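Appendix B. One record, verbatim.
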Amino acid sequence: MSESANHPMAELQFREALRDAMTEEMVRDENVFLMGEEVAEYDGAYKVSQGMLDQFGPKRVIDTPIAENGFSGLGIGAAMMGLRPVVEFMTWNFTFVAFDQIVSNAAKIRYMSGGQLKVPIVFRGGNGAAGQLAATHNNSTEAFYTNVPGLKVIAPSNPDDAKGLLKSAIRDDDPVLFMESELMFGLKGEVSDEEDYTLPIGKARIAREGDDVTLVAHSKSYWLAMEAAEELAKQGYEATVIDPRTLRPFDTGAVVDSVKQTNRLVIVDECSPYGGIASEVAFRIQSQCFDYLDAPVARVTAKDTPAPYAKNLIEAWMPTVDEVIAAAKGALYVE
């Protein structure tokens, strides 16, 4: 159940929830500003920043050249000087150009300066596969960045979490990477109308409760898990679905508590299988509650190749609801 369940709700698109979060934080704190490719005059590649240039002006909503390494470094420097930049990437696929700034500078400056400097910056933008965009534009990048100490990584699955977590990310004194599925910007959902609505970073959401198997899934994969859980229920098997929301820090305790009740775990993760989020979660569970497991931990991921372009191949490459159901039934030892 959402933390906002006891408050009035409005229905917003995912992009509108993100815009509300940034707008509220820019009104609250004059040190917050937004920059990135097309965020101002064009209202954002996915219209997340629509209207913000008119509201806040060109000094706080800033168009940048196509130079991810440069404007990421500029944002890090601004954060070190006391501002709170929100840096939008058109897609996280383009962050590989800015990789050195994010992992060598943003992630490590606070540690290397002995705490004398901090980098309160949010990097955000579209992430993951989005259809026929070919191998270079279909990467789920979260596994790359959760590998880096010093970074916090958030990947929400719905508008309510997107708003509450983005506001918390902007207020955080550490660099936060905020990953938004490119296919979810138009997703509608209820969002709390609570004044100054925030959600804690690092706390999972129990979306559905059942006694037979635990499904863990974040961002777009969460919806696969929920659809699979509904189909499993029709067949007589009840699943708990956990949306971790934050991938680093990860709410391991929420998954451990659930597995101690269901004794079975399936992780759904759009990343590549080798060294992915699913691999880390599987390790944590086998190390912390191995004696409670009645079946090997299973995972459903993208296939271990670059993303194909052809429609039939990209659909085969992505994790599917049928694969989640099969993995859950495998853990239950049923056909």
